Amino acid sequence: MEKSSKLTRFLERLFLLFLFINPLLDIFNGFFISNVLSVGILDVEFVSTLGVTPSLVVRMLFLVTFAAYIILVRDKHSILTALPIGLAFVLSVVSEYLLLGSVRIFVDAQYMARFCYNIALLMVYTRVFATRWGDDGGKFLITALDNIITYTLIAMSLAILVPAILGLGYSTYADRLGYRGNRGFFYAGNDVTAVLAMLLPLSIAHVIRGNIPEGSEGSKRRFPAVSAVAAALGADAMLVIGSKTAFLAFALTIGLLFIFVVIFSIIKKQPAALLRFVSVIVIICLILLLLTFISYFDAQAKLPAAEKTPFNFLRIIRESEFLKIITDSLGATEVIAEQDGAAMAVLSGRQHKLADQLRQFREGGIVVWLFGLGRGSQEVIVEMDLFEVLFYYGVFGFAAMMWLYFKLAIAFFANFFKKFDVRAFAAFIALGMIVGYLTVAGHVLFSVTSGFYLAFTIAYSRVCFAESAGDILLWKKT
After folding, report:
1. Could you say which of 75, 172, 418, 468 is the most buried, measured as most Cβ atoms within 10 Å of its Cβ?
2. Region at 43 (left for phi over 0; alpha for psi -120 to 50; beta for the rest)
3. Using CA atoms, how far apart are residues 478 and 78, in angstroms rounded to an integer?
């Protein structure tokens, strides 16, 4: 890496600090919407007209700072990557005007700004991490990133679990089956689910790695107890969220990592790895039991003396509102699957929005095919990111906006098979789930919350695969 100026070094330290600030922004944002704007339920129309929140202002300021940093370090490849994206945005607005005779420029600009924010994150954090590689082969850097994952999981999980115990926060669902699930004060349940789905396997992998001998002496790393607790809190938070994708992400993470550690323990003759994994499962159950007790006794303390019941273990388990949040969500998922079919259970009605916007795209003609319908042409988005990029920005926009993600996917698989270990497998689970999520159910590429952690996870995986600082960078020559 070339020598950097005092200003760029200051910005790099600021960007590292932002990794700790970021989860607090989302917690504050949800609290602001709930208590200042007094929005008590997830209102789709409100989402489209919400405008600017304090956290979005902070992030857009950071977007400007990211752009300034890229210019300061003369990262010409990143600049050349950004230019076609900007052109795709302009052409989509032109196409929208030709189609409708009007544009909603604020909606269009805000939507593209979110996408650019996440692309800029990739460009900036891969470079920042490369500058922190060090003479130890990146060991200190990886440890620092593992600590950030642990901190983020704890902060975001407690922001769900504590409101659930106190009976506060947003319900995940509000439909014909009633209110169920709890996502704390996170306004977008899909967002926080995606974040937990990415960070949970990485955290569990960190715990498992504590059993792998380090160096020729065969010394073992200490058990990362805090990371184990963070993973357990994250897993329990996913169960409390209670969405179909949260349950699926929980099951896939636990199931796939269990298969890995069993095979690893047999091949490498290291049963301790399996024991460490089992310890995470035990902690998940213990914390779930503890939260169940707290929830029950909190409810009992609020009852009149005549209605209080004596201590009874089975009754605590049966009557705890905390456990009821999870069981109600599980039961509702089964009911929806049985009554409405697999498509509705998986896509939650998105297939109808997809069909409608596909029709608009097909009927739009050559200009729309090339440059899209424009985001401002739609009152309600599909919430299926790959289709949104194609429909709103056309074939040209899809190529300009997605080629970097495809490039990084190819690089990931090339590294994955060369340096296969528990970290690589955990990153594969995390990124694999999020790609499936943003394709069929999520809103990641245009989200400043889950999109942030998609960029972080990609950058983290590049650090884990790297043999030198240059391997972390998006471009070999900068």
Report:
1. 172
2. beta
3. 9
Decide if 19 contacts 148 (C-beta within 8 A): yes
Are 319 and 270 a contacting pair, CB within 8 Å?
no
- Residue 296 in tokens: 């029950």
Write out the H or E segment, with its range, that includes residue 123.
Answer: helix 105-131
With beta carbons less than 8 A apart as the criterion, state whether 470 and 133 touch: no
What letter represents residue 463's amino acid?
A: V
Rounded to whole angstroms, the Cα distance separating 390 from 245 reads 24
CA 209 to chain centre: 23
Q: What sign for the dihedral angle of Cα 230, 232, 236, 238?
A: positive
> Residue 302: CA atoms inside 13 Å, Cβ hemisphere, count?
7
| Spatial distance between the Cα atoms of 249 and 198, rounded to a whole number of angstroms | 9
pLDDT in tens, 229-271: 999 999 999 999 988 889 999 999 999 999 999 998 888 788 8
pLDDT at 4: 65
Cβ contacts of 4-10, under 8 Å, gap ≥ 24: 4/73, 4/131, 5/72, 7/72, 8/69, 8/72, 8/73
Helix (H, G, I), strand (E, B) or coil at 214: strand
Angle between helices 54-72 and 105-131 (to 10 degrees): 50
**Closest by alpha carbon to 133, among 1, 296, 254?**
1
Q: What SS3 class is residue 467? A: coil
Q: Provide the pairing of β-strand 173-175 with 178-180.
A: antiparallel
Mean pLDDT of 118-123: 97
pLDDT (tens digit, 9 = 90+) per residue, 52-78?
Answer: 678 888 999 999 999 999 999 999 999
Q: Are 442 and 108 in contact (CB under 8 A)?
A: no
Phi, psi of 302 (to 5 degrees): -85, -10
- Tokens representing 114 are 């979110």
DSSP 166-207: HT-S--SEEETTEEE---TT-S-HHHHHHHHHHHHHHHHHHH
In the chain, % helix, strand, coil (3-state, to 5) comes to 75, 0, 25
C-alpha to C-alpha distance for 220 and 75, rounded to whole angstroms: 41
pTM of the predicted structure, to 2 decimals: 0.91
Give the integer Cα–Cα distance in Å for 181 and 238: 10
pLDDT digits (tens, 9 = 90+) for 336-358: 666 666 556 666 678 888 999 99
